[in-house]
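Summarise what follows for lecture notes:
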Amino acid sequence: MLWSLFWVNLLGTIYGYMWYGNQLVFTVRELSPAYLPFVPDSPTASLFFTLVLLFLLLDSYRGRAQHQAADWFRGCVEALAVITSFKYGIWAVSMIWAGAYQGDHVDWAGWMLTLSHLGMAAEVLLYMRLYTYRTLPIIIAGLWTLLNDFMDYTVGVYPWLPDELNDDLSMVAAFTVELSFVSIIIAFVMMKLRTILTKRQV
């Protein structure tokens, strides 16, 4: 199961960066190459979870590493995976169907993106017991996520929207920031639940 999820997420991440190809080129030519890290939101979220799956696969072969620096890095990647995968999974589906509500046509690609992004949001919740992140990684991941929101809607590197939503940009921005806070809270609640479940098992 882990290997299957790893390859699905890895290939999905590669496809996601390709999907953003035109916007990446536009950002370099019209804005600044310095903004590139803030452009491909969903593929980067998927990349974080792909790394989490890699950590779990390595655990299955050689056991949990006890190196403090490695644990800190792993915790940050896990927190980033939970917050950004849940956030952008829900965000993308919301934007697709908000556009459809206003008249945008949802083709096969829209349905594919809907299913894949719902999967992104769900899969990070399924592995709650296996995460190792604590409070500091949540804070770091949360600050990065909010910085990404700031860059998206002040510089203008947010994911390209259906044309029907371009006149609703302020509402989209507000929804995005609210979803960031919801995702940060979910990561914190998951950490607390994991602690409770671990104590019960002991």
Remarks:
- The chain has a mean pLDDT of 92.
- The helical segments are 2-19, 21-31, 41-62, 68-101, 108-126, 135-154, 169-201.
